[in-house]
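User: Predict the complex with magnesium ion.
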Amino acid sequence: MKIAVISPNKSYLQDIGRTLEAQGHAVALVDGGKLSLRAAAEQEQPELMLVDGLYCGPSELLQVEYISTHHPVIAVILLCSPQTPEFLINAMRAGVREVLPSPVDQEALVAAVSRITAKLTGARTQNTGKVLAFMPCKGGSGATFLATNLGRQLARTKSVLLIDLNLQFGDALSFVHEGAPASSLADVAQSIERLDASFLAASSVRISPSYSILAAPEDPARAMEIKPEHIEAILNLAVTQYDFVLLDLSRTLDALTIKALDRAYRIFPVLQAGLPGVRNACKLQTLFKSLGYAPDKTEWVVSRFEKSADIGLDSIQRTLGVARLHTVPNAYKEVNAAINQGNALGGSGRSSAVAKSLAEFALSLISPKPGESRSLLERLLRWA
Ligand SMILES: Nc1ncnc2c1ncn2[C@@H]1O[C@H](COP(=O)(O)OP(=O)(O)O)[C@@H](O)[C@H]1O
Ligand SMILES: [Mg+2]
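Assistant: Here is the predicted structure with magnesium ion placed in the model:
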């Protein structure tokens, strides 16, 4: 793998260079600080950048964020100490793959680089993205807000396609983007014989280099053109192209929705902490059981959550018989301002309660594979 190492400390730079070269990597040593990041990315075009010498404050991450936005193919490892949980979350949001202590010991460095090599080569040969389905237990529960904004968070380090399966009145795109889509799911369905990676990408709206949305048709009448077999073909292809395929579903339980739920790795039904939401959640739970889904396929999300709600998390957990729930805090003003401007929440730097909870939610989805010790997530959990 081609690796650029950046550090203001010359002897440290040489040490790291020797360690990595001994592992068979092509190493470019860049003597400098954070301001060398951009030039190093452009000149060296590495697959991995190891960055030492940041003092680990939030403003330092702007340089890193520039790299992950403009050079999404470059993986970034930061070497710095000390590391607070907040810094680790911000680092993940800025697109950093790993944060290692500085000075790093050889063994930890080699292990982290091989984890990333395995991930990158694995991604090139056999990418099987995870399909995550988001479904409101009741209209207006916050499922679309969650799916679209989680997509944005995941896309900081992963490639993400969100497919709007609210076929008649889908509005997912408008949550994070201004303007109408040039083409939609109905156009893909209509020319399904042309379906390949470039047609799928060209039919989706590119929100950022690693986040795209395949919009629902603008004309509700065109919903009828979309059949379950189209969804099957699109999902078969999408999981080979993206790390995460998010499905924004409606509450309509038809053949197409069930096809999407069947294909999902996880289903996230979204409810508000009130009687109607909980009642519908129970109905959905019965349906999922009758469809033969394992209990751990479903993870329940309480959206617009407030500690003072009449129905507490404990009682929802007891009613649904589940050990844990995800929560998204209630933040009417902030959420609606973002929706009305067609912007995602949670750009780095700002950290409201909702943005934080989405960042943590995203982290919980990017779970390490077995054997991947000392990952960002693992260390965060240890801090918690
Ligand atoms: N976390 C939240 N806090 C406050 N209001 C929210 C939140 N999430 C969603 N909303 C509000 O609820 C409305 C419906 O959300 P939406 O995601 O479209 O629901 P669904 O897709 O479940 O029908 C949004 O327009 C917004 O006004
Ligand atoms: Mg919706």
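The domain at 130-345 is CATH 3.40.50.300 (Rossmann fold).
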